[in-house]
Amino acid sequence: MQYRKLGKTGLKVSEISLGSWLTYGATVEKETAIKTIHRAYELGINFFDTANVYARGEAEKVVGEALKSFPRESYVLATKVFWPMGDGPNDRGLSRKHVMEQAHASLKRLGVDYVDIYYAHRYDPETPVEETLRAFDDLVRQGKVLYVGVSEWTAAQIREALAIADQKLLDRIVVNQPVYNMFNRYIEKEIIPLSEKEGLAQVVFSPLAQGVLTGKYKLGEPIPEGTRAADPKVRPMIERYMDEKLLQAVERLVEVARELDITPSQLALAWVLRQKNVASALVGASRVEQIEENAASSGIVLNGETIERIESILQGVSIQ
Asked: Which residue numbers delimit the NADP-dependent oxidoreductase domain (predicted)?
């Protein structure tokens, strides 16, 4: 496993990180989830990601229980705040009240004294950015959070937060968690240039385009049983990737992977990691075999010819 620095910080994270969205605490049995997390750790993955909203706190409980087996200093743990955790008017967003209450609730569920990274899970237009940053800053000063991040914020929103932090001497954002894969590349235009200038890193989610880039979904064939697309609750999130042109592109990408003697998943992850501003590619795994395959993509370097070939395949193929 290779490691990269998180932006300009001194924190080093594994190129492949393991997340818990749509899996742990929900569709994956607890025993399997713990085995998968343990195997990831054995493979050198030191970066584990969750959120309070994943299965309404259940994902945090599973992740926390699994990581209890390891020394706290040996792994990097991230969680998030923003989405509704109740029906009350203050049970959502990035107000000081919600941030503080959810930070303490997350620490309790995870069974730890601090999290390494605490993300604003989305931008909250109803709360002043300064209020949120002051709450985060207090958590950092209290030692309950080590680094602050955001997820799916625009370049303008990130720029605003950095300016306020600098002006008010508050703890700065050091990481952004956006969607990024071969079919969704919006961060290349503004987010990455800004982040490189300001010292932020990207920890990208959905690098396999909800599993479509693994090659498991094929044109003209039924959706395989047991896959995310077969789950009616999850299917709407994958639907936009099930386009005919995208699936045709996947067929060509599978051929590229075959020629390189790697799997389509490893090709997709290596392509994401070609970006120096990407510190880690965040994957989900419902089976031990999946995390073993994905972890093996760390260290794979695609040469210029391969990258050009991939670009030609992706020409005009995008969900943006």
From this structure: 15-314
Go through the domains of the chain in sequence order and give each one's CATH number.
Answer: 3-207+264-297 (3.20.20.100)
**pLDDT tens per residue, range 66-121:** 999 999 999 999 999 999 999 999 999 999 999 999 999 999 999 999 999 999 99
Least-confidence region, from 82-96, 170-184, 306-320: 306-320
Task: Average the pLDDT over each of 3-12, 22-31, 96-105 and give the range with the smallest value.
Answer: 22-31
Mean pLDDT for all residues in the chain: 94
Q: What global pTM score does this model have?
A: 0.93
232 contact partners, CB below 8 Å, separation of at least 6: none
Beta bridge partners of 147: 117
pLDDT of residue 228: 67
Residues 6+ apart with CB under 8 A from 103: 81, 118, 139, 144, 145
Least Cα distance to 16 among 262, 276, 269 occurs for 269
Catalytic member of 3, 24, 41, 54: 54
Q: Which of 2-11, 202-211, 212-221, 229-238 has the lowest mean pLDDT?
A: 229-238
In angstroms, rounded to a whole number, what is the distance separating the alpha carbons of residues 306 and 103?
44
Give yes or no: 54 in active site. yes
